[in-house]
Write a structure and sequence with these properties.
With 521 residues, this protein is of the alpha/beta class. The radius of gyration is 25 Å and the shape is globular. Helix 6 links the parallel strand 7 and strand 8. The chain has 15 helices and 17 strands. Helix 4 packs across helix 8, helix 6 packs across helix 13 and helix 10 crosses helix 11. Helices cover 32% and strands 17% of the residues. The strands form 4 sheets. It has a 9-stranded mixed sheet with strand order 1-15-16-17-14-13-10-11-12, sandwiched between helices. Strands 6-4-7-8 form a 4-stranded parallel sheet, with helices on both faces. A two-stranded antiparallel sheet has the order 2-9.
Length: 521
């Protein structure tokens, strides 16, 4: 099925032209089209496009690996731009009667992989020290009367609280891919205990692959406050460094099928705090179910401005660039009419008599849910799999016209047909030129710290997407349609009751000890 769905773009293009038009009744035109005098052409529309230069990135000592034709690079021979300090670290082994789990804390293979991982962290430039403690949580067997595995999570809680000295981070060796254990553990550590965690499937880390170690190190360094790589694109750096600037990402995730009716949606706002645009702490809030507009945006923006000010010697940003994800094409104007005023109210908090605080604001909506696809007509503009080359941008012929918008494919397609992201500027007080906003968005797509590749969605928006998804772990009970009594929710439970239970599960959000970090990676 996957192979059938992931056809190369040239195959899809031929299918649309040669078979699709006929199946839709467009070729030859049916009676209805003929009645209205409508004709559908045989060929796809040709629009002008261009390929943006590959942005440069920089690691420690100005080491700049070159991205390949798939917009990816590797960590071989480079160190993080700013390596974090790895202090006291705990390794928690989850025992759940699985074939690939570790035998226990005395398993020689466990010591081997932990040593290999710590060596990778040191080789990448992290300062590895402190005490290393091993702990084991032997989970009770699965029980149909405990679908959320509360007993298992309670066992993990007891083991974590008994670890001495208190770790700065816990490396969790999961027994398998049981989402119930993972979600419960993240809720426990993020909300209740305030412990940073990095989770890995035991079967994966047992491969002893440098790539697995490196991917874990990328996340660990960012969670501990480090910087993996810097932006080195001259034009983007010049614009960002001209004035203090904050880059914001926003997203909302909604309950899906099988959730309790009334389960709230989760809004996430992330924002840069440093002049390297690497660290993006997140703020999460629950709100009315399936409401796309962010209800508490004013307070969430204030919280991001506060942490920016605390990290920049009391200075507030003079420019604000917002990337808003998750909005459908029919809701673009609502962002301007409803969310824009809330951001302005956040600015007003910092105003003084006769001296208002009024940074220049630009809002860009990011849309992945669209049906536009691009097929290169020149071999020089195509990758080996016939997808457009990374950095392909189209801003004429298929754009809105009433807004400044463009399609950008920053990433390299690995399989099937790549989908560009549609970026639409709904508010622009910074008066970006087309080349500036397109180039900056492209450069920021190379700043996704947990990866060594450009990503399909600009990094701040991608971070917000990941952060909102982490919030789902805190409401996993309701998202699975389970009441506080442990039974499936029925019509007798009102949406008000569900919201009350959600508030109880939410517990005020992320614990104060980790809320100003990138805990969500």
């Amino acid at each position: 099925m996957t192979t059938t769905a992931c056809q190369p773009p040239n195959v899809n293009g031929r299918t649309i032209v040669n078979q699709g038009l006929a199946r839709l009744g467009f070729q030859p035109p049916g009676a209805v089209l003929q009645t209205f005098g409508v004709e559908v052409g045989h060929e796809m529309v040709v629009v002008p496009g261009r390929i943006l230069p590959t942005p440069r990135i920089k690691y420690s000592r100005n080491n700049s690996p070159v991205a390949d034709n798939k917009a990816s690079w590797n960590l071989r021979g480079v160190k993080f731009a700013a390596g974090a300090t790895l202090g006291n670290m705990a390794v928690l082994v989850i025992k759940d009667e699985k074939d690939n789990e570790f035998a226990g804390v005395n398993d020689p293979e466990l010591d081997e992989v932990v040593t290999g991982f710590r060596e990778m962290c040191a080789n990448c430039g992290m300062k590895v020290g402190g005490k290393l403690v091993y702990a084991e949580a032997r989970l009770p067997s699965k029980n149909s009367s405990d679908p959320l595995r509360k007993e298992a999570i309670e066992k993990i809680r007891q083991v974590l609280l008994a670890i001495r000295p208190s770790p700065s981070i816990v490396l969790v060796m999961l027994a398998d891919e049981d989402r119930t254990v993972y979600e419960g553990l993240k809720h426990l550590c993020d909300v209740l205990l305030g412990i940073a965690t990095v989770c890995v499937n035991s079967a994966n880390i047992k491969k002893k692959s440098p790539r697995v170690y490196a991917n874990m190190a990328l996340k660990l360094n960012m969670k501990l406050g480090g910087i993996n790589h810097n932006m080195s694109d001259p034009n983007s750096v010049r614009w960002l460094s001209a004035k203090p600037t904050i880059i914001v990402g926003m997203d909302v995730t909604h309950p899906g099928f099988g959730s309790a009716k009334g389960t709230p949606s989760i809004a996430a706002v992330v924002a840069s705090v440093d002049n390297q645009y690497a660290q993006y702490p997140a703020c999460l809030e629950i709100q009315e179910t399936k409401k796309e507009m962010i209800t508490k945006l004013k307070d969430m923006m204030i919280s991001r401005l506060e942490i920016f000010r605390s990290c920049n010697k009391g200075k507030l940003p003079e420019r604000v660039l917002v990337y808003r994800d998750g909005v459908s094409e029919g809701q673009f104007d609502i962002v301007r009419s409803e969310e824009h005023p809330e951001i302005m109210k956040a600015f007003q908090k910092y105003g003084k008599p006769k001296q208002p605080y009024r940074p220049k604001l630009t809002i860009v909506v990011c849309c992945k849910r669209h049906h536009a696809r691009f097929y290169p007509i020149k071999k020089s503009a195509a990758m080996g799999n016939a997808n457009p080359r990374p950095g392909t941008v189209a801003d004429r012929g298929v754009t809105a016209g009433c807004h400044s918008d463009f399609f950008l494919q920053a990433h390299g397609g690995l399989q099937g047909e790549t989908r560009p992201t549609h970026y639409l500027v709904v508010q622009d007080e910074n008066r970006f030129k087309a080349d500036e906003i397109q180039g900056l968005t492209h450069a920021l797509s190379y700043m996704f710290s947990p990866a060594t590749t450009a990503v399909s969605l600009v990094s701040p928006a991608y971070y917000a997407d990941i952060a909102s998804d982490r919030g789902r772990c805190y409401l996993h009970k309701l998202l699975h349609g389970i009441t506080e009594e442990g039974t499936t929710l029925s019509c007798s439970h009102s949406e008000g009751d569900v919201m009350k239970e959600a508030v109880n599960l939410w517990r005020g959000g992320v614990h104060k000890d980790i809320k100003d970090t990138m805990f969500y990676l």
